[in-house]
Structures are given as C-alpha cells and as structure tokens.
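Consider this pair:
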Amino acid sequence: MMSPNTSNGFNLPKGVTDLSRDIYDLHMLVFWICVGIATLVFGAMICAVLKFRRSQGAVADTSMVHSTGVEIIWTIIPMVILVFMAVPAAETILDIEDTRNSELSIRVTGYQWKWQYHYMGDADGIDYFSTLAQDSNFARQLHSGIDPKSVPNYLLSVDKPLVVPSRTKVRLLLASGDVIHAWWVPDFGVKRDAIPGFINELWFRVIPGKEGIYRGQCAALCGRDHGFMPIVVDVRTPEDFKKWVDAQKADLAKAAAATADATAPAGGAATAVVRTAQVVD
C-alpha cells in the first residue's frame, strides 16, 4: 500500500504518528488564535477608518494623549495569550524529547550519500545500507537520455527501505560517519540532525491503520550528492514486521552457514599441513 504525503499543499501535513498529530493540533490552535487576533485588530481599524473619517464630520479628539489603564490592558492581554499558547507548546516539546519506554531501537548512521540502519533488541543483527534506487540513479546522470518523469518516485526511492512496525514506539539513534546529515520524514513530524561524534535521538509511533510507504530526504546540505539521499520507511503491522525480522534472521543464518562451509576446507587443509610438518620433524 502506497501512502503519499498527507499535506494538501496549503497547510502542514497532519501526519500518521502521535507526534505529528500533536504538532498539527498545536499549529492549528495557534493559527486560530492568530486569526482571532487579526479579526479583532483589523476589524477595529477598518471600523475606525470608515466611521470616524473627516467626510463623515468626525473631529479628532486631541485631549486623550495618554492612558495608563489602556497601556496596562494591552500589555496584560498579550501576556495572557502567550502563556495560554506556551503551555501546550511546552507539553508538545517535552513529549517530542521523551524517548523513554521505546519498544524498538534502531541505530541510524548517515554517510555521503546513504543511510545505514542497524537494528537493536529482538531484531539485533539486521544491518544494511539504504541508497538511492538504481532507476533514479541512472536517470539523474548527465545525458542519460532517460526522462525523469518516467521514473516512479524519482529521487525518492531506495533499494532497501527502513522497515518498522506500526503501533510501536520506535527510537532512532542518529549519528554520522562524515558530515552533518538530517533524517526527515514529513509525515512522521520528525527531523533531527545526524552529527559526527554525537548521538541524537528521536522517536515516533505510527498510528494503527496507517501502514504503508512514507518518504523523506536528508534535510542538511551534506555535499555534492545531497539531493540524492532519500529516506523511505516501510511501515508494517506488528505481525508482518515480526515475519520480516524472522525472514531476515533466517537469511543471515544461511549466509553465515555458507561462509562457514566455504572456509572449512581451507581450515582443514591448513591443519593437515601442520600435522604433516610435525610428522616430518
């Protein structure tokens, strides 16, 4: 199931995570407060301009040049409005920074120009790189002769997406192996820098029923191919995610067994040479 960006082009995307919904609600709260203030202020100005203009016989009142009471009122009211907005804003910020009680941790390392995902906990051992998909990579080359419009999700597709479960608090540990990168998926409402020598954290929990493919990009200017470093997240149900983890571990076990079988004859030959040398001595 493909899930496009949830923005309508005129507003913030509502998103598919708990955090993105909280950020959207906070944004709309502040927006309507601003609309209310603008309506009152501009309404009063327009009313004053129309009602008290000279052509209507209005005469300017030059006696009132100062009012302490009015100044106190127009100072207190904005303070109250700011405090009213600061409380939900502070709660949202604290929630964004709270990575406690995460159910899945993934170490994300940015490189020029790819991402490395290393799963931890029950999915430990799953580790791979995610790079720009080959069809986009070919089409972006100078004189490739390929129309970018013919490439699905041009520059927003990868060979191996990050796979996560819905209904699960996922914590990402962000770092970089070279320069500053930034992991950003708009529909998740999260963006955090990946800095060399420093570990950043972010978390998200995708709402049940919102499984699908979500796309983002590196949001920090990281060099020549900065524009070719997309992020793709494949959100699956917890059951499907467990099946994916089991399949990945089975593939890893097969690869390890094949490597062991390939190295066994060489090891046996070396042992035989040592034993022969001992017999000769």
